[in-house]
Amino acid sequence: MSSWLKRTALAAAATVAFSSFAVAQVVYHRGNDGEPETLDAHKTSTVGESHVLRDLYEGLVIKNNKGEVVPGVAEKWEMADDGKTYRFTLRANAKWSNGDPLKAPDFVFAYRRIMNPETGAKYANILYPILNAEKVNKGQAKPEELGVKAVDDRTLEIRLEQPTPYFIEQLTHQTGLPIHQASVEKFGKDYVKPGNLVSNGAYTLAEFVPNSHIKVVKNPNFHDAANVKIDQVMFYPISDLAAAVRRFQAGELHSTPDIPADQVKALKERFGKQVVIGPYLGVYALPVNSSKPPFDDVRVRKALSMAIDREFIAEQIWGGTMLPAYSFVPPGIGNYGKPAQAEYASMSPIDREDKAKAMLKEAGYGPGGKPLKVEVRYNTTDNNRNTVVAIADQWKALGVETSFINTDSKTHFAHLRDGGDFDVARYGWIGDYSDPQNFLFLLESDNKGFNYGKWKNAQFDDLMKNKAAKEGDLKKRAEYLLQAEQIFMKEEPWIPLLHYSTKNLISDKLVGFNQNISGVYPSRFLSLKQ
Questions:
Q1: pLDDT tens digits for 271-319?
Q2: 3 state DSSP class of 10
Q3: Which helix (H) or strand (E) element contains residue 217?
Q4: Intra-chain end-to-end CA distance of the chain, in Å
């Protein structure tokens, strides 16, 4: 090769190297709460799914990385004096990832779709405050009768059944996201697949490899793309928390969604300020199948609940990162006062155990008699396994024989949502908005998507749906909700165990992470030190 050709080849190689360096992709490796069952926003319900959807889509309003409600697709909104009509003005430059303009009719299509009973949306009742939403969802009205209309391409009007103090925050939930109508009509249920999915958020879907990863890439058509610093986000489903710690230490993960609770002290010594713990609006509970014997007997449910030493579990199993729960609604929630507590909250563990034995004996079970056999289902993580094993050990004192079924998160939650049989199951609920209704509505008798144990109480339903839901005075409304929670704590169709905290490993390289009570940190607000 001549010297001229050599110089040309070297120059070309240098140009390629420089170009590669100049366009080097910033990739965020993000641990996620389990494997998403679906990315159809109208059929999702888990925290892990919401993290991905928050990157792919943008609703009328969103939560930023501080958990604050801020404008999304809507640049502004106004509420009528009666508190029942909202008008949203959409951004002029709002687009779908394929370049199509995003218009008000897209939201009309999405809201009608989620309420259409044929869609089978388990979470549709989040939007029941919208006029006629419940009727549409139950097949009692046509989708066209839903209180949502496009005044013009940039103006969306939403009418409510009655004033709803938490409605704007509700719209930050995935049930409030727009859906690309042409994609749904073309691909049907496959519209969520990579290559088919058209989104409107900061990222688009590039890959979804089950049990491996989800890859999303920056959306150049996003209205705020210039301020999105991370080019790619790799979501990894995390169930083995110890393995996640090892991957974090090796630099393979920039963040984890959880940490092994029994290693908190050691992790703090090893990682220092990279261990981030804070309050979280959630409850860790055990739904009980009150639709079948013997769990339809309130004495059995109460005995199982009373025998659990929550302080031991919070301190010894969860390393002090969780709070013992004697109420269903977490303390400090908005539009409420002090939650209703179990009557045995102030009793010593020994006294509670004695009372639980007597109650179980009265129901026909206990030591020396007929043993109560309980099968506990849980989704597999180290923390969950250690928790249910500790509870089973505490139940032994009552003569309870406990067995376990554990599966991955996707299988576990699908089993519960689809009405699968169980005795007792592990479940965690994170508030979508700071209001007690967002917890208590789970147990309404017609909430088939979440009332897993099929509990029915007419007085509870009346307080929730006919009194609290229609009361405009926040103080009176809180009183109705408190009465409903008091009924819940008397019946205990679910056994509240712990109130959550967020527990993350956050790399020093990840900038912009802010611990917040909602556990929300969209990737678009983060950046990485290179």
A1: 999 999 998 999 999 999 999 999 999 999 999 999 999 999 999 999 9
A2: helix
A3: strand 213-218
A4: 39
